[in-house]
Each structure stands twice: as structure tokens, then as C-alpha cells.
Here is the input.
Amino acid sequence: MQNHSRPIQSVLPAFLTSVLFIIFLPIISFSQEFWSPTGSVSATSDVFRLATDSQDRVYACANGRAVFVSDNGGTSWTLSLFRGDAFWDIIVTSSDDVYLAAGNEVLLSNDQGNNWVDVSQGLPGADVRSLGVDAEGRLFAGLYGAMIYRSPDNGNTWQALTRGLSNQTVYVSMAINSQGHIFAGTNGAHIYRSTDHGENWQRLTAGLSSAEVWALEIDTEDRIFAGTGNGVCISNDNGTSWSLAPQTEGMVDVNDMTINSEGHIFASNNNGGVWRTIDHGNSWENIGNPAANGATPWGLAMDTQDYLYAGAANGQVYRSTLATVENTSSFFPINAGIQPVNRSSVEWGDYDSDGDLDLLMVGTDGTQNYAKIYRNDDSHTFVDLTSAGLQPVINGPVTWGDYDNDGDLDVLLTGYDGGSTNFSIVYRNDGAGSFTDLGMDLVPIGSGSVDWGDYDNDGDLDIFMTGWNGTTSYALIYRNDEGSFVDINAGLPGVRSGSCLWGDYDNDGDLDIFLSGWNGTESFTQIFENDNGSFVDINAGLTTINGSAAWGDYDNDGDLDLLLTGFHSGAPTSTALYRNDNSVFVEVSSGLPGVGQSCVAWGDYDNDGDLDILLNGWDGTNIQTDIFQNNAGTFTAIHAGLPLVKTGALAWGDYDNDGDLDLFLTGQDSDLNIYSEVYRNDGGTVNTLPQAPANLSSSKSGSDIILSWDAASDSETPVPGLTYNLRIGTTPNGEEVKSSQSDPATGFRELVLPGNVQNMTSWTIHGLADGNYYWSVQSIDNAYAGSSFATEQSFAIGEVPSAITESASSIDATTVTLNGLINPNGFVTTVVFEYGISTGYGDQVAGSPSPVNGSTETAVSAHLTGLTAATEYHFRVVATSLVATVNGADHVFTTLADGSLPTATTTGATEVTFSSATLNGTVNPGNLSTTLEFEYGLTQSYGDVITLLNPIDGTDDVPVQAGLTGLIASSQYHFRVMATNAMGSVSGQDQVFTTLADGNVLTVTTNSATDVTSSSATLNGTVNPGDLSTTLEFEYGLTQSYGDVITLLNPIDGTDDVPVSTELTGLEAASQYHYRVVATNSVGSVNGQDQVFTTLADGSLLAVTTGAATELTTHSAILNGVVNPGDQITSVIFELGVNSSYGDEFTAAQSPVNGLADVEVDASVEGLNENTEYHYRVVANNASGTTYGEDQVFTTAMNYPATFTLDSFTDFPIHENADEYSVADYRMFGLPGSIDLLASEILSGNQSEDWQVYWDNGNTSDYLVEFNGSSDFQFSVGRAFWVINKGRLEIDGFSPTAPLNSNNQVELPLHSGWNLITNPVMTSISWATIQNLNNISDPIWSFDGSFHQAYNFECYQGYYYFNTDGLSDLIIPIQSTTLTKSGRNIEDPEQWQATIILTSGTHQDRSVQFGVASDASETLDRYDYRKPHAVGALAGISFNRPSWDAEYPVFAADMRPMHVDHQLWDFELENLGNETSKLSFEGLEQIPSQYDIYLINIHNGHAIDLRTEPSYEFVASSPRMKFTLSVGSAEQVQNYINNITPETPFIGQNFPNPFNPSTTLSYRLPASSNVSLIIYNVQGNIVSVISSGSQAAGWYEVVWNGETVEGKTMSTGIYFARLIAGDYTQVIKMLYLK
Here is the structure.
């Protein structure tokens, strides 16, 4: 169905619609008054109706024709709408749509009142007095004397409801019950009811005390309350009968009613203020007139937290100081008699170790300062410990902590005395109620925060403190060096009035810090990571705030979340909850009130296992103090009934040991009353203690000790939510090293804190001295109750024992004795031997003696039995003391086998020559593994041994032999075989042989064939004739049987090796041949070994391809290629150098290669230079010649650092006057790396006054998002923004580099559509490199007042990129490579491309191109790319092509196919001004000379020959104009020009519309006509005649100045322009806004 809604234009500029109205600072406490005024809404109009939405926005409907909106509880109001009609009613639907009864219209806002839309078309024009909406979304409107109307579609259409209704009645109120029954109150006709969604109505009168029903309300049980002219009437039977509610007779003229979450009804009336019933109307109480001056209360509304709002006749809105629900909490004051204080600090702690919590407190009552300890006696009364002698201070924190690990709680106190003296004091608890000032040299400060924590894991508490001394702010860390405190000069920014907290947010085992406060200029909030004792800002992106903060794992996922409250820039008060997502802090919606002068504390008051929040402070209007219950991560106020105080302190603590958390509270209320009170929790749910941890263990890492345990469990707190409390001492049950601040015997927690190692199940302690240590750990639940301590464990620090494994002895088949040496080095040491058939061992046996002690070596041993025969065993000695376990070296032994000695027989030598022989024998191994040797020499003493590599086994005789070389000619040698197994060694008998004399040895070697072709080859060999005449032959053939012989003609002689060869011809192609050389002399014939070769295939060629280099690093690469050897043995190398002259050679790993198939070859190259371009190619050589692969290029990687140094500036245009700034002054800007900063953090001053930032979300509409402080505006990897700034923007500092993927590339996240991106690395990269790497063709665009394509991707510069290919990430190399530019280059000489240039005023757009290409198409192709959009209106050119892409139809390039005789390019100009504009062109000379080129102005038909006039100047007839380029033969171009006149008259929509004061109308005529252009009003009366008379064919534009023919200015409204041309008539509608 068509939507007939129309926009309502605000008459105020956008920047004036967020005006902060007056805030009334005094807050009236509940004990004095029910009401408190909010910020002023309207000084003159009744606030007639109020409404609230699900986010507690308040909408105030002033009958003086204005709507105001507040999103902060009424502290400030924003004008949403102002117009000339009376506003009668306003309602909010369950989806937060807002409907307004505005005069005779219904208006809708679905964006919190920012914009309003008229949805009243179909209503009769009478005043709309009441509105209602049912559960199914049907909208009802009660009218003045015109029935009730219903809309089923959010106001698009309306239907009159007439059955049973009177059209003379005024329907002034409306309510709908849970069954969908509708009740309509009237002014004089009682109430009408419909039970069928408005189809039929019945009048209800029975029992109604008045016919005037101005207000209706229905409770959760469908009781109906009617506010009449004479009190409140109630119906319990669906309106059939009514009775006047008791005590309401005085309520004359009830104006409005509302209901809270408990069903309590509130009613306002003319003479009695506001009334309330909490018992369904049976009784009523007057809760007073909210207006002190007695102004009549009108509209009422209730928010989701049950705060009541009332609008009054004095233009003021009032808010209840408390929620209107009853206090159902279980907290009750015990009247502890504690000194009331303000500007205070408090903490629970059992200072006297008697098993209950005492109180530590500082503060002032306005006349005197205090610092007190209150002892909790057995009866749970609190006694002032006057002996404590602490320095009275104000504005200073105080905290318990056992700094000296003596098992009792000491005190750290800072603050000032109310004058000029500041203090920072550590008090030692001396027992018996005495505390001694240690005189530590700490900087005296006040107005700060302190916290104890062991940041260096040495077991004692260090100090973190902030504050100021009247002139300087500080943030200091003092290291505890055995009871003295040393400033570590942490380099933290000094702050005051904030919070400093230790906390291991990243669960890496050391304490990080949270720091917030006021640094003298602005609020500061940050988290610093503990980096081995240095503290590094993690840029967590937290709300800048100075106030109270607390760590707490509210979602029980095992890491610390963060709660912040206080004051911050941009808003008076704030409360922010951050969830820790793997060390990234994400703000979550908590529902908590924003407060300053505040205090917060986590604690599980209801024992349901999750952390609740205790919070107080001032929200800018009212004081808040309440407990907020944690319901799965959302927090709901329990309305605990606590005093409403600020500038005080809060603390949880189970002071009465009844298993639930009580609380202590101090502070000052709005009447300046001061409180110090303990509240007892009588909730009834008792906490059970958690289980103690199990499986405690210790280990050593270097000089550190690592203590570990298993996670514990608890009935209430989930396992990840438990924390752990560690104690370490030098005596059993002692805490001399690390204090648990719990009772070691019972586990009672002496501090109301999580465990001292948080949720870690292991902890590392540094720097312990030599000695024995004892330790244990307990678990702590979310109610801060501790388990008993686990069974105590011990470890030692000192010299480790030494362990030396000695050789085994007494080895037989099944038994052995293991041996070792142990030096205990002063600690009792147990000894075992580990043994087994591998180094995994698997078995162990105690050593003897064990344990051993002392500082000298002791021999230890162990006897093993039951071993497996003939098996190799591994063993080692292991020594364990409290210091460490030490393993001796691995040793092996082999048990004897079950078997016999081997037998050995020496047999005769064979193959005897003048220098060599083969020795022979036979051995039976006796069923055992047996090693073999031959002894030989010139006598029977032998002297030389040759060992056979492979042992033998089994029961059979085995022939064995060994070859000897290097013997002496003509000499007798002795030899014998020797065999050895597990049973022993045997020798064979002696044998002899005599070597031959020199010259009698013939040796023959067959060598590889060479010069192999498809039909020939050269056979080669080497022969030593042995000093005898020797004849030579080569046998060859297709098998090893050969078959063919070629005899060499000349015999050879001598004693040298002689190379021999012969050439074969007539061979078969592609065939394998066998061959060998044969030599014969007087000694005999000797055959060389068999060799093979394969003839080449006919026409086989050597083919070479150079591949891309891979595995590039800073100094190495792998070169690749492919070689086809052509079935020849081919050597392969790579040539490499910094240019194509190369210079270095590297042999391929596969060289030489052979065969007919392609062979992949590579070479690994080392020692290259970083970030250097290299050339290389593959070179192959064989018998066919040398072939070179093509040249390839690669660039070695650059060294990628961990951080970038940021050092850049961007100059923005500077203008003297604010109105001189324009869209052209914006720039796209980004930062390299992965810095976690909001855009606002690099800019100075105020948003909208000094700077502005936008982000593009890629949508087709509403794509530009104004800076709102969300994570969308963080400088994540590759993200850029639109930025405008007053003057230069300078950037310096450091940024972490962007993370790399497995290919050493950066992945830049993309969304669909347009993306604002920047280079995340510090190296300029050609866009062509990125296009090739990502297989994309779209360009990137830079902006310097107009758009330009960019060819290099630079850091700090922002770019627009359109994600045509739907990529999730853009791959960015960390350096550029030399690649040809991809995408849309036009290189064919027959192709051409030209640029259209628009100059309008001082602005020029040259971003649009048109032309032809061989592979282009008439539709969208790779040459056609989209045009980016600027921040606002900017004169420009574009091709509008919705048929190509309906969502993103604006293009900057349109390329067409070649060889088309006539082409038309339609393009548009937009955002043109009144000055002269010019179109010019570049590249027209590329267009073939046979073509004409014409520019046609579609508005007036003017055609310009661009061959003779290459530019065209004109004054824009409208901000948007259309042109056509016609390129083709002269005849075709002229035919087109002659036929562009329209076929019918036409009038376009006026521009602008709506308009004020004038608008332009355009129309065209196909032929000469008598023309009339007349303006009419909605009554059909003629207002003005614009044109009249005969006009020729063509385009016409006229301006109407909004005046009548008499020259009078028209009023706001709808007007009609009517064009009459001959028989043709057309009408358009226009809207004039005055």
C-alpha cells in the first residue's frame, strides 16, 4: 500500500536542537518532599501531557505548541518540535514509536523525536484530542466532534468508527485493557466502550459521578480508573458499573493518571496536586503539588525505574525524588553509634584477628576531622579504638593491608587536615590496639586514591597512590623493599579526585593498574599493563572520568570487568560498565544511573553467586543511593531504602558473621545531614563457604617458584568467578613471605576483598632467599567468604642436588646392579633409579641409601632382577629434595642372551690382484646377534682389522666376506674371521694368500654415454691394461644380452688408466640401450659394468620457464622454474642479480634432470639484502645447447617492526569566518598500525566547533555517521574517516603495527559498498600491487576538495574504495612490488578515453571519464567504476546508471565497445550554484577524426561542437542539469540532435521543494503552443500567473517568488502549479514553508 506520510520540517537549525536548559542543583530529600524540579521546559505553556519510552526518555507535550525530549531524567531538555497547533496528547508504543495529537493532525516520530512525519491523511480535519494503541499495533484517534478513527497501518490509512458513537462528542481520553477492549472518555458524554477493536461502541454511564472523563487508566487486573470532573471512579466489571473512589471527592477536574510497576495509581487534578492509591483505589493520599507556586499539575508519566514525572501549568516538569515502589529490601540500620562523617573513606577489616570485622574510617562532620578505628565486639557493637592515634584527615582514602607480612592488618592513610597540610602515612599494627607511624618518606597528598598490591610478585604489598598536594597532581608506585617504600618512578600521569586500582585484567599473573581522575585540564581514564615492572598504556578506549571505580567479574567468566562512575567531559555525570572480552573492554548497557561525587562497590549481597552493585552519588538532579541486583548481566535497583547521600563512602562486609553481606555507608544528603551507619542484611539466604583448592604443587623456573593448584567449586559462585588467596611463610602455617590477610587456622577473611591472586590457579613468586618455605591457598567467593586453607605444602630454595649416573655392573641375562653418585647439597634428598627399554623409562626402584643428606657425594645403587635376556635397557639416577628434582644422565646396558658362542671358519681368499683381495669365511651366530671382523696382516700377528657393518643372527651357517684394497704387490698375507655375541668371541683358523706382481691386473670401467641424439651416441669407458697389450670392444643392444659388438682398432698398453670411446650411429629414436666395455689381454678378459642411455625422440626440444619466487624473507628466497630436458641429461642453474645483468649463479637442487616430462626445479638463496628488488632466470644446458627462461623480479621482505613511530601532520584549510567552511574543506584521514584510539583523542577542542568526524558505513542511504564516541570511530586496522579541523592536525607518538597473517600480510577489514580506508603499514604501496594481490580492478580515490584517482596507497591519507567484489578483507603487503598496473588501462591505439571537467565557482571536478575499449560492453564491465560521495553537497559530474546497479547507480566511468558508429553518453551535473559554470574536456584528440563530437544541453537543446569549441560556459538553470555527449558520424550525430525535442509537453517537479522564499519550475514543449503556467492554493483559487501566451518548442525555466499577483507573501501550505500547453494539462504539488 502506498505510504501517504509527508515530512514535517523543523524551523530550527540542527545545531540549536540540543540546547541544555537550566539545571536546578538543590535536591530535596524524600524525607522532606516528594518532588524535585527538572530542567526548565517552557516558561509560558502548560505541560499538558507526558510520556516515557523503554529507555526512560521523557516526552513533554506543552500546550503552547512544543514538544521537548529529555534523555537524562529531566536534567536537560531538547526542543523536538515547535509549530502553530495545540498539542493535546502524546503516547509511546511498545516499540518506542511516538504519536502526537497536533491540532487536526497525528504526527509520528520513530527516531526519539528528532524528526516527525504527518500520518493523518484520511482524518476529517477536526482536532485530535486523544490517542491509543492496542497490543496488535492498531492506532486509535479520538476527535473533536468527529467520532473515533482507527488506523491498522501506523497512520497510513484511517477508518471512521461510527457504530454507537456521536459525532457531536469530544473524545478527550482513551485506554485499552489486556483483552483489547477500548474505553474512550468524553467531555460531557461519559465513557464509550468497544469490545471488538472499535467496530461497535456502547455508552457507559452507570455510577459515573460526572459526564466529563478527562483521564483513564487500567491496572494489571483490568480495573478501570476514570478521572472525572468530580473525582476518580472505579469499575471492576469492565466498565458496566462504576463507583466513586473513597477520599477523592475533593479531586475536582482530574487531569491525568498513570500507574507504576506495582499497580499503584497516581492522579493529578486542578486543586489538590497529585494523589496516590496503593490499594487499588480503596484509599488515597495526597502526595503534594509538585509546583511550589501552586501551579496546576497536568500530565503524569512513569519511567521504567518507577520514577514519577508531573508536568505543570508553570511550564515546569517535576520528578519524584525516589522511585514510587515500596522498599522491599532486607537492609536495616542497626544504629551503631559511629561518628557521622562526609568527604570520607571507609573499609572493613579484622585488625585484632578475633574473627569479626572492624571498621576503619576517615572524614569530617563539617567542624572536625576524624580518623577512627571501631572495634567490633562479640555482641557486634562498635567501640571507638581511641588508642589507634591515627591522623585525622578529610578527602583522603584509607585502607588496610599487612605490609610487613606479620599476620595483622596495618593502615595506609592519605589526606589533608582541612588546611594546607597533606599526609601520607603508613601505620604498623603493633597489636593490643596500638598503631605506629613508620615515618615513611611518601609524598604527602590528598584528594586521591590508594591501593595495596604486590605488583612485582615478591610476596609483600606495594603501594599505588594518587592525589595532589595543592599544586601538583601525582600517580605514584612505591615498591616495598623489606618494609621500606621506594618510588619506582613509574612515569604515570598525575591525577586527583579519581581512582587507582591494582588488578590483573589480562590474567598473565602480575598486577596491572587502572588509573582515573582529573589531571588539571581534563578527565583521564586508562588501564596500564604491567610489562615486567613497567606500565604501558593499553589505550582501552574507556570513558574519560574522575570518580569512583571498581574491578569485578560481574559475568563470572574468569576475568576482571570494570565499573566507572563520576564526572567527565561532555556530560555532568556518568556510570559506565565495561565487559572484559579477552583483554578488550567493551561498554555494555547496565541500566545504572550516571552519578558523580560517588562511590561504588561490588558484592554478592543476595548469595546467588554473582556480583551486585552498591552505588551512591549525584545524578545532576537527584542523589541516588541503592543496591543494584545482578540479573544475568543486567542491573535492577532493589530500592533498599538507604539514605540518599553523596561525597561519602560505601563498603560491604559481613560484620555479624551470619553468612550474608551487610554494608556501611557515610555521606551527606541534600539537606546537609551527615550519616555514618551500618545496615544489617536480613535477606535470609545464607552463603555456604566454597571448597578449598586441591592438588597443590610447586615447580621452579630459573630463580622463580611457580605455585599451582586446581580450581575449587562453590554452591553459589560459579567456578570461573572464584578467586584465590595465597599465603607463604618460612615456618609451618606462617605468612612471613606473603600474607593472606585471612586466619590460617579457620580461613576467616580479615578483609572484604577478592583473593590476593585473583582468579589465577597458579602464581609465580620472585626473589626468595635460600631456605625451606611453607604455603597454602584458599578460595574466595563473590560474597568475599573464604574456604579453609588447603593442606599445607612446602618447597625449598637453594642449591639443587647433583645426580651422576654410573655404569651398570653385574650384568647377566636377567639381573643387573645400577649405580650412581648423589650430592644432596645440604637438603634431605630421596634417591630412585628410573629404568626401561627406552628413554621414557617407565619403572623405578629406590636407591640405597635413601634418603641422603649432607654436602658430599654419596655412592648409591639398586639391584634389579627379572629382566629380559638380550635386551638393551636405559636407566638414570634421580635425586629429589625440596629444592628440585634432578635427573642424572641416561646410561644403557644389555642383558646377556640365552644362547651359545658363535662358530667361525676362515675360507680361502678370492679375487686376488696386485693390490686387492676378497676375504671369505663362514659363521654360525649361535642364535644371538653376532658382529663380524676380519683380522689380516703380513704375519699371524695380523695388525689390521676390517669390521663388517651388519651383524648376523640365527642358527644357520652364514657365508661372510670382506674386500681389501691398498695391498702390497707380490706379498703374502695372513687373515682370519672373528665372531662376537653376548656369549663371547671366537676366531676362525689362519689362512694365507699372495698378491699378484705389478702389471698383471686388468681393470675395466664402463662410463656414461655422451652426445646422445635421436639416432647416435658416444659410448665411453676407462681401461687399465695392467702393463699388457689389451684389445677393446663395446657390446651394446636393447637388452643386457646386448647382441651387437663394435671393436676398437688399436690395442692399448701400459700401467695407466686409458679413456676409450666409440661412436654409434643408426640407432632407433626414443629407445633405451644397454652397453659395456670389454678388455682382453694375456691375463684374460674383463667386462665393465652395464650402462644405459636413451636416444632422443625425433624433434625433442629443451623447454625452460622461470617461475615466481616463493618463501620470501628479509634475506632469503626460493627461486623456481620448470625445465623439460628433451630426454637429455640437462644441467640447471639460476642466474640472480640486482638487475637483468645478473652476476650470481645457483645450481638447482634437482640438477641434472632428464626425461621427456616437465621437471619443477628450485634453488634456495640466502644472504640477500632486506627490501631489495632482484632479477633472476632459470638456465638449462644439455647436448642440444643452452636455453634461458624469461626474467622474473622479486623484492625481499622488509623488517616488520613491533611498533611504528607516528610523525605526521595534515593541514586543513583555515577561514576567518565559520560560514566560509564548506564540504571541500574536509579530508579523508587515517592512522597506520593498529592503534586503539578514538578519533576524538587526536583532536583538540569541541566537536562541531573545532572539529567534526564522519564514518561511512557502506549503506546505500544514511551512510555517513556523525562522530558519537562508539567503537565505529576507533582507528582500527586500515580504517579512515572524513575529518575537518581548524588548522593543522599534528600526529606523534607510537602505534602497534598491524598484525600479520601467515603470509606476512595485513588483512584490512571491509564491509559492503563504499569503504573509507588507509594504508596500515608505513610503506608507500602501489595500488597496482594491491589490485594484483587481491584480483580486483576498482581504483581508490583521494580527496583534496575534489576527488582524484590515486595510484599509490599512502599512510595517514584516507581513500574511498568500493567493494565491488564483496571482499571481507583487503590483503595489504608490507611492501610494494614492481607489477604492471591492473584493471582498466586503455593501451590499444584504436581505443580512447577522455575526461569531463566541471568548473563551478572555485571548485573543479575532473573525476569522470568516457571512451571505448575493445573488450568493453554497453552494460557494466571492468572499465566502469563508481563515483564516491562527499560529506555534503559538492558540485560534480556523474553517470547515473540505475540499470547497472540500482543500489549504487552513480558512476565515474562509462566505457563502450569499439567500432560502433554512434554512441551517446548521458551525464548529470549536481549541486550547481548561481555562478557561471564551465564544462571542458581532455583527451578528445584521441577520438578518431572521422567522428563528430557534440555536447547537448538537455534543458535547452543547445548543441556544442566540441571539435571547434572544446569547452562550454553556462549559468545553471537549476542545481541539477542533464547533458548528453554524442560521438559518431556527422550524419548520425545531426540526426540525433534534430530529434531530441520531447514528444509531449512536460513540467518537472519544482526545485527546491519544500521551498522558501522562491522555487524554480522547468517545462518543455515539443512544438509551438499557447502556454499558461498558473499557481493555485488548496481551495482552487488562483494565486499567481507565471507564464501566459504563445511559446516556441524547447525547454523553459521560470522562478516563482512565493508571492500573489498582488505582491503579497503567501502563508505556509500546499500549492499547485498547473501547466496548460494546447490540449495538454499537467499539475504538480508544491510545499511552501514560511
